[in-house]
Amino acid sequence: MILDVLVPLMVGLAIFLFGMKVMELALQHWAGPYLQKMLETFTATPVHGLVAGTVLTALLQSSSAITVITISLVNAGLLTFPRTLGIILGTNIGTCLTTELVSLNITHLAIPLLIVSASIWMLGWFIPLKGKKEHRSIARWLHALRYLSLAVCGFSCLLAGMEVMQSIVPALQEKGLFTLFLQYAQKSPLWGIAAGAGLTAVIHSSAATIAMTMVLASMQAIDIDLGIAIVLGANIGTCATAVIASIGGTRAGVFVAWSHVLLNVFGAIVFYPLIPALAAVTEWMSADPSGQIARAQTIYNIACSLLALPVCYLPALQKMRHG
Question: Which of 77, 95, 177, 247 is 20 to 30 A off residue 104, Cα-Cα?
Answer without folding.
Answer: 177
